[in-house]
Amino acid sequence: MPHYRAKSTLEQWRILQAVVDCGGYAHAAEKLNKSQSSLNHAVSKLQQVLGVQLLEIRGRKAELTHVGEVMLRRSRQLSQTVYELEQLACNMEQGWEPEIKLALEMVFDRNDLIPALKDFQEHGRGSRLTIEDTVLTGTLEHIRNESADLVITHQLPKGYLGEPIHDYYMDLVCHPDHPLAQQSSPISQDQLAQHLQIVIRDTANQPAEEGGWLKAEQRWTVSHFDEALRLVRSGLGFCWLPPYIAKRAMQKGSLRKLELKGSTCRKGSLYLVLPKGEKTGPCSRLLADLVLRHAPKRQQDDMEASAG
């Protein structure tokens, strides 16, 4: 409909919404700082050009007709779209990014991110957020190539700084009926090498040698911890898994933690990195501030400082 000309205006729909929300013309006129007669005229004109009745007066209250309920619901979507469009223009004029990307090392427990994301939804001015799972070299690529606005990583490339936000742990696990679970602990790497290892695929375009590979004779590669968990729980092989993935299965007895000679678990720190440095936009900085504010490590440090 390239030459279609709208019969109604956004202002008319805005007035209809106000009349309904305020329960009548008098309160709506006060809210919009307009005369009651102008609101009456706008709604009457809207009904006239549409050819349908939207409101009916019952006593002193204006109530929606069945048609009016449908039209009002759609008009709210239209008003929201226009608001978001104008907000986007304002954001771009102020240098506010319309879309940002957060790259997350897969060992990071996503539940720890929820409080920050809830705050970001409220204050992010409608900016779109893309969250991408990354592993090993793939995480470092996002930092070096500046292909993400924020990165949560367990290793810092040379020349980059990061804010510590959390510690991570990974346990070596298998099914309770797996042959490894029947051997005396602790288990040697030579014993492990005789069995199938499940590893997580490096997300880099040019992956480096995986740090978690224990030189097993057999190795199956999957793209996510959930798939690794499914395979290990079925009795296929062993794998390094973080507690947020494996904890429930271990509590239920469907996974067994293995004790490896010289290593009870794999652990380290997670850091928040802004790969673009000074070029980082205000929306990305807002999300970074929220992540740091809600970071378990930051909260723990604040509690220890208060106690001291």
From TrEMBL:
Matches recorded under InterPro entries: LysR_HTH_N, LysR_subst-bd, WH-like_DNA-bd_sf, WH_DNA-bd_sf
Pfam families, per database record: HTH_1, LysR_substrate
Domain HTH lysR-type: 9-65
PROSITE patterns recorded: HTH_LYSR (PS50931)
GO molecular function, one term: transcription cis-regulatory region binding
Keyword entries, A-Z: DNA-binding, Transcription, Transcription regulation
Cross-referenced PANTHER family: HTH-TYPE TRANSCRIPTIONAL REGULATOR, TRANSCRIPTIONAL REGULATOR-RELATED
Family, similarity comment: Belongs to the LysR transcriptional regulatory family.
Name of the protein in its database record: LysR family transcriptional regulator
